[in-house]
Please model this.
Amino acid sequence: MSFAPRVFSGIQPSGDLHLGNYLGAIRRFVPLQETHDCVYCVVDMHAITVWQNPEDLARSTLELTAAYLAAGLDPKRAIIFNQSQVVEHAELAWIFNCIARMGWMQRMTQWKEKSGKNAEAASLGLFAYPSLMAADILLYKATHVPVGEDQKQHLELTRDVAQKFNNDFSEWIAKKGYGENFFPITEPMISGPAMRVMSLKDGTKKMSKSDPADTSRILLTDDADTIAKKIRRATTDPEPLPSEPKGLAGRAEAANLVEIYAALAGISVEDTLKAFGGKGFGVFKPALAEVAVAEIAPLAERMRRYLDAPDEIRAILADGAARARVIAQKTMREVRDIVGFVG
Ligand code: AQP
Model:
């Protein structure tokens, strides 16, 4: 069975958005509106897998939606909504909890990192997070998911869940006339520079909302001075930049800044090094700050304007949820029928 191309992606409203979220995800969502049917979600149910202060969660939900709009997502073309308004996400996630295996979840790097040394005290929701993510994607039978490199493993699990559902219920899927495969085997879209933006303080750690060090990340709401200051203070080594990518081997912090520059300037890493090879960070960092400010300052200004009208943001989310529900309810009617739920 062939599936109509559809893009789904989501971001957690779990804190202030940073350059990694922007380059790895949000910015890449925009051009896909031209070529695909797009569904973009604010995944608030994922956010509560770790404790969220309720006021902060509500504020972050509006801010993330404002970032989507400020980056250029068009709520008339793409479906933009927050996950908790479409209850079918939770319902399909439960069915997937019964499809996925404990061993699959235990192998997830994000589970290991976030549960840390005290896994016993982590929430059950955090453990089952990838199952809810599979439900988010497959509820819309999405064929493509643009995400950063860190989500690759979860995407593979989504493919495993779809495959196992299709196999476990193959007889009923065929008998009830739903074709050969009910769920698509979704393709990740992970390519280009800065698919894994690293911390400005430690080139071995990814830039993350939950890093306790503010100076480790550039926020989408940072002003020009703050951006320049964070880049100036970014950890680097004393060597000048090499003229070719192979010279970045073993220089994680330098490689990270070069990738960020390339992504922001819209050129390759090779061309970035052709321009800056042999130059020190005293020259490179101000140039990086300039491209970062040029991209982020206008975005932050547009975000502020959207946030001045929170009721409009709420209306956009409500409209998106109504449109998402139409697709989600159809999928769930069929899933219930396949699984054998009466009603
Ligand atoms: N450092 C990163 N580089 C590139 N892409 C990134 N993404 C996140 N960090 C980077 C991408 O942003 C999207 C949304 O991520 P998320 O909010 O669902 O959760 P996350 O990946 O766990 O992001 P954070 O910022 O690190 O949050 P916390 O600290 O709460 O875990 C995804 O497409 C992700 O790949």
Q: What stands out?
A: DSSP finds 14 helices and five strands in the chain. Residues 310-339 form the longest helix (30 residues). The mean pLDDT is 96. The radius of gyration is 21 Å.
